[in-house]
UniProtKB/TrEMBL annotation:
Chief place of localization: secreted
Source organism of this protein record: Trapa incisa
Cellular localisation: Secreted, Cell wall
Domain of life of the native organism: Eukaryota
Active-site positions on this chain: H240
Gene3D superfamilies assigned to the protein according to its UniProt record, in alphabetical order: Single-stranded right-handed beta-helix, Pectin lyase-like
Signal peptide: 1-22
Protein name in the entry: Polygalacturonase
Length: 393
């Protein structure tokens, strides 16, 4: 066989293999199930039915949301499914305007090998509901719907999507294992209440990579019973920074450990790297935490442990937190602060913070209330290398 014929044969074979692979993923287009991309028709039923069909397919399936604007009031996608399943969004999905109490808008539950991808947008239309949020005044508020919930999802990827103006949290992760977020954009105004970017709880092996998160609350928040969590390459701002907690609010909370936050930028955030616990009798531990190679740009409270967390007021200040914080490292944290209190360690008098390590911290403050300073209580630890401002451990 001549070289030219061999080359053409190889090209033909590769084309056939590519076509076979494409055909192996069975497509379920929401338009084929009655969805109408006019921005006014409720397409909840069409979305759910498309997913149900894909979920029952014996093989790799894909739910496709084409270009256009789709109104969806509520969509719940539950497994287990019979094979890997994709949710591929190129259009824009809009929530119904106005407030609705609690719960969620989209929910993916009990699914293994899920991929949520595309360049489309989940638009929660939160601007039509934020005025109904009373959580800043009422610690027992029920809240508004979370935009996207991932409940007990495993071995899955969320990539390339956009989440805009959630009514409450943008993304909530509960009971998940081996879940990766990459190249996503989460956007809400700085003044939008409780619009956390990604909140993680009771989950293991969650990765957040190379994403932009700008909201009115925590860019990433890590709650009880979370282990082996990595946050890397995230640009955070506006928002309340990257937080662990709050911890110690609910009975039965379990330990948090193995948290690694590195190579991130925090830009004009109300807090920087924060750990927050309630002053309560609820016991658990937070340990094995690393914040490394973080750039701060005009942040408040750049490094903070607050074990008297009480955002809505009315707490019993005579109580001390029962959360034991230990083995926390801050390495290579540098940048600028717009508050003179650059490092705040307000640890528990009952269970002081142990083995807190500060290495090469260089945070400058050039305001009129200078010089930059640290404030520490009930803190045990060590410091190495550059310490600007001077460490209090």
């Amino acid at each position: 066989m001549s070289f030219l014929r061999l080359f053409l044969f190889v090209l033909l074979l590769e084309g056939l293999l590519f076509e076979a692979k494409a055909q192996a993923i069975k497509q379920y287009n929401v338009n084929d199930f009655g969805a109408i991309p006019d921005g006014h028709t409720d397409n909840s039923k069409a979305f759910v039915n498309a997913f149900k069909g894909a979920c029952q397919y014996h093989g790799h399936s894909r739910v496709v949301v084409p270009r256009g604007t789709y109104l969806v009031k509520l969509a719940e996608f539950n497994g287990p499914c019979r094979g890997p399943i994709d949710f591929f969004l190129t259009g824009n999905v809009k929530a119904a305007p106005g407030p609705r109490e609690g719960g969620y808008w989209f929910r993916f539950g009990y699914i293994d090998r899920l991929t949520v991808s595309g360049k489309g947008t989940f638009d929660g239309q939160g601007q039509t509901a934020w005025s109904s949020n009373e959580c800043s005044k009422n610690p027992n508020c029920k809240g508004l719907p979370i935009s996207i919930r991932f409940d007990y999802v495993s071995n899955s990827v969320v990539s390339g999507i956009n989440s805009l103006n959630s009514k409450y949290f943008h993304i909530n992760v509960l009971g998940c294992t081996n879940l990766r977020f990459q190249n996503i954009r989460i956007i809400a105004p700085a003044e939008s209440p409780n619009t956390d970017g990604i909140h993680i709880g009771q989950s293991k092996n969650v990765r957040i990579f190379d994403s932009f998160i700008g909201t009115g609350d925590d860019c990433v928040s890590i709650g009880p019973e979370s282990t082996d969590i990595e946050v890397s390459g995230v640009h955070c701002g506006p928002g309340h920074g990257i937080s662990i907690g709050s911890l110690g609010k609910y009975t039965g909370e379990k330990d948090v450990s193995g948290i690694n936050v590195h190579d991130c930028v925090l830009d004009r955030t109300d807090n920087g790297l924060r750990i927050k616990t309630w002053a309560s009798d609820i016991k658990s531990r937070l340990y094995n935490v690393t914040f490394r190679d973080i750039i701060l740009k005009n942040t408040y409270n750049s490094i903070m442990i607050d074990q008297q967390y009480c955002p809505a007021g009315g707490c019993d200040t005579s109580k001390a937190s029962s959360i034991q914080i230990q083995d926390v490292q801050y390495k290579g944290i540098r940048g600028t602060s717009i508050s003179p209190d650059v490092e705040i360690f307000r640890c528990s008098r009952k269970y002081p913070c142990n083995n807190i390590v500060l290495k090469d911290i260089d945070i400058s403050y050039n305001g009129k209330n200078g010089p930059a300073r640290t404030r520490c209580s009930f803190l045990n630890g060590r410091s190495f290398g550059v310490q600007n401002p001077k460490a209090c451990v």
